[in-house]
User: Fold these one by one.
Assistant:
Number 1:
Amino acid sequence: MTAPATVAWIVGATSGVGRASALALAGPDRHLVLSGRRESLLGQLADEVTGQGGDATVLALDATDGAAVDAAAMRISAERGDVGELLFSAGLNVRDRSWADLKMGEFDAIVDTNLNAVARAISLVLPGMRSRGAGRVVVISSWAGWTYGRGAGVAYSASKTALKALTESLNDQEGPHGISACLLCPGDIDTPLIDNRPVVPDQAQRERMLTPDDVARAVAFVFGLPRHACVNELVISPIESPSYGR
């Protein structure tokens, strides 16, 4: 009897690493649930996944909208079963990043996206993972979540650094239930998020950065490991100029 496809929920699938990871994970052994804010782009991605022989459902949402995320998790469980793999790739940063320019409204929005929304998504899939006795979570953090990154910003650095405690506590407490988490910390990636930097990198600088596909290959590696293996933390950077990240 063929094993049922693993339900893999990708939050932040619209662009960048999330989008590239969906294509890297596409195949008959997974059903991908693609979430992000732009439904039309998610639909295009779902078509590409199908074209590669995969299967996908689109659930558009804002990762910081708790009610929408709760509803999405309930719908996935009802229609597809328990989530076996969760990739959280949504992220936010702003142009004004220093203490001198700090706006608490922006601080709250960054922490809500980069930390609170991650905790919510994980908490929603944990019961199903526990009942299955298996599950894997990959959280896209940043070089700034691995070590202090000058220029990453107060809110971004704080939120990304906190993800280390989030994933370590998950491994510590849920490992006995067959659940593992990986904190994936990339250096500079050429994604739309870097357009929010105080000084936007030029084309020559972008060409020296990681691509979303580079990081997606790391995501696929982690999800492809045997159940008993856990990559607690994975750092990947451009060979020329590792920096403070996304």
Number 2:
Amino acid sequence: MEKIMAVYDVDPQYAKRFADVTNQKEKVPFTVVPFSSLEALEDYARKHRIEILLISGAVLPEQVGEIPAGTVVTLSEGEKLPSADAYPCVYKYQSADSVIREVMSRYCDQPAEDLFTIIGKRAKVLGVYSPLGRCLKTSLALTLGQELARDGKVLYLGLEEFSGFSQLFCEEIKNDLSDVLYFLRQGGFNVMRLRSLVYTWKDMDYIAPVRYPEDLEQMSGMEAADLLEKLATETGYGYVVADIGRPARNLAPILDNCDVIYMPVREDSISAAKLAEFDQYLELTGRQNIQEKIQRVKLPYGSSLRQGNCLDQLLWGEMGDYVRKLLRGVM
């Protein structure tokens, strides 16, 4: 059944712009319906079930209470809202993605009959891993994610100790993989909760890597496998791109859950020795199935990124050309 998020603000253009942006990005599994008057909202609510009501803080609480809705969140302009019977609020003058994350967080905190999962075709999980250092692994993963997101729904999962994402994406990171693992352990992980934790770069959604390396070290192999499976089967994405660092004891379960593993390689003697040792590890531990998934790739090292938006440079430079050929199977 279609789930409705109704939006009413005293500025009618705000509700319309918010709905346009959110519906276009398919950020949440709701249909966002804007309203330019309180009367129109009240009439709509008499005929349709509203799952989430996002409403101006200027509307009196008693008026809000007359509108039936599963969860009510008020839009604040920074003013102090009445404390008595106050609804949770979000600051309206921020990006639509930030508003959605906060609204989803408030929604998941409320008792609900079903914070549903999206059942459909399993996402293809693309792992990017290499036992080598400084091999452009993350550059490849980011470019893969951006390219695939031009035509489908992509979730980027960072499994690295230090990512630099707050600098790369020029965004304050408040939620990350540590939060996802917390809700997974508490049994509170679902698609709605995920929507409160993911960020978006253009068309690509991403889970920011952990703030503290210790959180990644404490992730068990079973948790890693469970997380990847849930992301692939319950969230509605077409692709999950996993940028895999050095998670030690968790490496095999993560690689085992990937459909394809792109492994950047180099041709110097030290790199060749490390790769041979990795192959030996897979053989000795009986994990030939992982070996069969690996595609070794020699990435273009000749180009340098200029000062500015390096993510756009990756997509439209040599790396982007390489990835487009790789995805077409012509490498």
Number 3:
Amino acid sequence: MTCGIYTLANDVVYDQLIALLNSIATNISPDFPVCVIPYDHRTTKVAAEIERRPSNVTLFDDGEALERWEQFATTIWQHHPTAYDVWNLRGVSGVNRMGMHRRFCAFDGPFERYIYLDADTLVLGDIEPILSPLDEVDWVVYDFQFKDPTHVFNVHSPQLSDAFSEQQLDKIFCAGMYAAKRGVFSPDQLDWLLEQLKTEADVLYINGPDQAIVNYMVLKLDLNIRNLSKCLPANRVTGCCATSPHFERQEHYLVDGGKRLTYLHYIGIGSRFFRRLCQGENLDFPYRDLFLYYRYLDAPDQQPVFEGKPQPIGAQAPRTKNIFKRLRSRLALRR
């Protein structure tokens, strides 16, 4: 059975993608299959990076699938009562963050079982505990998003309580990491979901459009979902978000209360900060040295040399101060 990892990337997140690929090669296997789904057409650097790597790293090139899932997302958002109006006011033409919806290509991609990871992630430990439950369940996650439904659904929608029970809402998850099987959604199920969303689209959170849709799909079909943060013994559970300040570094991974993290998600830290850091700007953000280690693992001589005290990213121009608002809003997700 073919297992692999999908991620979503373009040249904007080039540095993060390199760090992710290096962490997979180091902490899983240099031969583990990885498929990079293009976020959009800006993939010149990404394609060159994939070309220089072993053949187990590939660029997803099924144009029909990309178009099909973009149309799927477009159809959904056409039923939302306010999304397009709000996005237009923000200067967004069409569907907000359309490229993020391309992750849905994994539902019928080449891997029979897979883990999806956002590009701003490092794999730091054994992923078998994430993949092996797929023998028994449809969907596996490992996060604490269930503590904060406001970044998944419109909690003010009067339709939410009709669409989902409290027990279902307690199963919401972060779309930055999940494991599933190819074909988990049949064509008939997808048609049924689109039909339901004609009247229930208002429950979707428009600022995280792809995360809202994938949660809706999993919960509405009542898939058998396992969240390892709830199922693992307490002495084995770790956090996963860079918003958690208490992780300790050991060698080239992190531990949480003596337990090794499976992955670290740099949630809420914009790609521009990673890019500027790699261009030599002495910026500071959580676990930046771990990121730099994996980013330049294959080319340590190219790593920037910094002088003086690093500047916290919160001290940037006023427009970047919103990052700390986002980080604080997600503190409830940390361990």
Number 4:
Amino acid sequence: MALGFATKAIHIGQQPDTATGSVTVPLYQTSTFAQEGIGQHHGFEYARTNNPTRAAWEKNIAALEDGTDAIAFASGMAAIDAVARLFNSGDHILLAEDMYGGTFRLFDTVFRRHGIHFDTVDMRSLDAVRASLRPTTRLLFTETPTNPLMTISDIAALAEIAHSVGALLAVDNTFASPYFQRPLSLGADIVIHSATKYLGGHSDLVHGVVVVRSAELAERLHFLQNAAGAVPGPFDCWLLLRSVKTLAVRMEQHQKNALAIAELCQEHPAVAKVYYPGLPSHPQHELARRQMSGFSGMVSIELGSRQKAEQFMAALEIITLAESLGGVESLVCHPATMTHASIPPSVREARGITEGLVRLSIGIEDTSDLLEDVRRALDRCI
């Protein structure tokens, strides 16, 4: 029986507990497991290696991403770190130029020292991607939509390019969530999430996860998960199992509210530019419609100056100034000084991450309240 997304989110990996009948997966808050004899156990030996609550969560998110397996980590950056560790000194990796600042920082300050070469490229341009390939290219790594400019990468086309030279394609799917986009079904080999964001959805945990199609990749990543030990605690996994049950309904409301805010900003005289792939005016709107079933809750706006950005953020009453995104509450941040501060200023400016750029994570509050909050704040910027 083929199950729909919401049904899988509620039931896959979350069958009633066989020991007690508990409908909710138990929280196995333990560091070790009793063994009946040498080599005789129930599939669990030590909690860094595996934990029943974590195993349930990994099974669930693998199903939601149409993957064969998932590997959970203590943060989104730990997940990206594990993927990078699949490669060797001398290997070359292509990164999308418009990515989270922490991803750039990891490659620039950590993996560069270990001999992994990387370049950034505008992955909207397939010709630019092809021109940037080297004989040693082993991975193409993109976000789509990207953080914070909401550009869209053609996942199927990038997968074809990567595979033509024996490389892998990894997609950070944090902004879309598996509800709106499933990169593995479009040809990607690896999907990465900062599960802190939409998968967790309540701003109460830090977590990362990698989902793959290949059993061989899964085996290598599970080895790294255990060997390096950047594993999540069982309580975070339990919270994710709880949260993902409402992912479908949350994402619909996130999108409804974000589209309303984007349309308001598009018409407001204080806004120079709106970045939201759900708007027909977005230059890659048609591509987004082809590979996504919805457009999520992230909106960025250009206000023209640092002064106006500060005026706007200070005038908001419902929307909170804070790092992160994807929670039920609406948040606003200033990428140039917050999420992308680790990128050199000249590089940020060249990519469009200006002092006047503001990123909004639109929550699931009443639409009318959010519209009034944003409208009032924008009026202060005229």
